[in-house]
Design a protein that fits this description.
The complex is a heterodimer of chains A (273) and B (355). Chain A is mainly α. Chain A has helices at 3-32, 51-58, 60-93, 99-113, 119-128, 135-159, 163-171, 176-187, 189-205, 208-213, 222-225, 238-263. Classes of the chains: A mainly alpha (273), B alpha+beta (355). The A-B interface holds A 162, 164-165, 167-175, 178, 182-183, 186-187 and B 51-53, 72-76, 78-80, 82-84, 86, 88-90, 99-100, 102-104, 151.
Chain lengths: 273, 355
Amino acid sequence: MSPRRFLAVIGRYTLICLLLAFFSLPLLWLAFAPFDRAPGVAASLPSFTLDNFRELLDNENALRSLRNSLVLAAGTGAIVVTLAALAAYALSRVRLPGRDALLYALLLLSSIVTGTAAMVPLFNLAYELDLIDSQLGVILVLSGGLLPSAVFILKDFTDATPRSYEESARVFGASPLQIVRHIVVPLIRPGLATIAVWSVAQVWGNFLIPFLLLRSPEKSPAAVVMYTFYTEGGQPDLALISTFSLLYSLPVVAMFLFVSSRYGFRFHGGIKH
Amino acid sequence: MSAIDLVRLSKVYPGGVTALDGVELAIADGEFFALLGPSGCGKTTLLRTIAGLEEATGGAVLIGGDDVTALPPGRRDVAMVFQDYALFPHMTVTDNIAYPLRIRQVGGAERRAKAAGTAGELGLDALLERRPAQLSGGQQQRVALARAMACHPRAFLLDEPLSNLDARMRLEARTFLKRLQRELRITCVFVTHDQAEALALADRVAGMEDGRVRQVGTPAEVFRRPANTFVASFIGSTPMNLLEGEVREGGRVAVGPAEVPGGPGAGALAPGDPVVYGVRPEYLTYAGEPTGGAFSGEVTVVENLGSAQLVTLDGESGSIQVVVDEDTEVAPGTAAWAVPRPDRVLLYRDGALVP
């Protein structure tokens, strides 16, 4: 190996190591800080303790907020999966003029609906509908924002299922809803799992919409409540924040692992099987 | 009673494409009926219209005397076997066969027992717990047939039932299908583009072209006396020779320089009438020596068919194909003659058979 090449290899690996460190340091902090007696903002080997968890369990707001997150995520996930499956099936089977344009327009606008730009009209809408400080309001707004992408992804799955399955069931007398339940849903199950995980993860991490629409702290989800963890002195309570962050991220990681082992995440949708 | 009657059945797609153009057919109870034609002739549309998967734009479909034109597919009491079998991939063989019963809300235990019974009749006992992906093509077809049988329909509709099988399986499945239909004595309509399949399976065949039925008859009728040049050219494993000619005195026909016997139809025509002279390659006798009343030409192609050979003669009368015995030596490039069998000659005037 020439010295020149040797240097190039060393340079390449150094760069990779730096990049790796950049991304892994926050994760290391998340893994170590909750067990540290006096957590700081730097990742360091902890002097081991479980006191932080005890403190968190005593904090009523923290656990309730995780339950609230669960309600929002489950509610939104259920609505998105159900409606997206029905819409994707209908859109892939019924010829509508301008169907594709409609889908693309919705996809484009959906990022605005749950984004900062629509904050004021969303608030006004929720106010008029008496949905301020209601978890249902948050669920509906989030579902609305996620649905276009979900329909778009699922339509690829429904497009790829042959029509003769459904026609066969129709000749045997199955109703459209029976066809969806018995034939279409099992066939696109990997797609539904992808959508469910994706929408739950989106809701779990969403801060803006619940922050905007929920008034009372006892209805707020984890992402919003975390924002309120300060010590009496106005400093961020790092012990509480780090412990809570760990607890907060575990369900999503667990769900990814479960669904991935069950269905296997592939790059669905890009390539027709 | 499960005869199927089609009354001036029409299907015009939005955009003006006519798929069915006043189809009139009477299919008898218990009959094995073939819809035969090239792709795009409307045969599959016709089958799907009988099933109710396509809506007729005119005319009526009657099954067992009941007008079902306005009924959805599930209420017509027919079963359809699709070209790709359409077995549900996420269900076992049992669940697939039991599916029609599930729709009719038959209890779980009862429908599994019934499915197992039907599967037993078709020799599928060992496969009940498998999924469609774990079955061979022939087994998949049997499962599809079992599923169709499970709901005891008034009629079977089969879309290209043999086309997804390899050549060897196809013959086996053909015999199986015919025996099954005989045993069940069920009205059965199937679609095929393969004339050999239609002739072998069906009690009667309807030849279709451009959304119209051009001839209905038994396999023997459509093979021996095709009613028009379309059916004549479509039926038969080697296509019929169809040559432009002109009627002469004495019941003979001139085709180019050759003057050949005009067959039974020639008497009805006057000398000078233009006709199309039709004779199957099987009904021509090959001769290496000059012969009277024969086509002459040069041997250009020799195709081996196993027990026979198909010889193409190019001469002034046109290109003519002759089936020659396997023992006769035929060399390309030599001159040869083909003598038609007079009682098998067919004459067509304006595309229609001269009786």
